[in-house]
Every structure is written in structure tokens, then in C-alpha cells.
Design goal:
single chain; 23 residues; 91% helix
């Protein structure tokens, strides 16, 4: 469960970074 939370955070951060780069 702990690992899943970290993975989700990283995925969200990556998505946010790509979204920011697109704009």
C-alpha cells in the first residue's frame, strides 16, 4: 500500500509536469 501511494504521487507529478510543458 505504501509503495502504491508513492507511485501514484510520482505519476501525478509527471502528469503535472507534462501538462505544464505543453502550455
Amino acid at each position: 500500500m505504501y509503495n502504491e501511494r508513492i507511485e501514484r504521487k510520482i505519476l501525478l507529478l509527471m502528469l503535472f509536469k507534462t501538462f505544464e510543458a505543453n502550455i
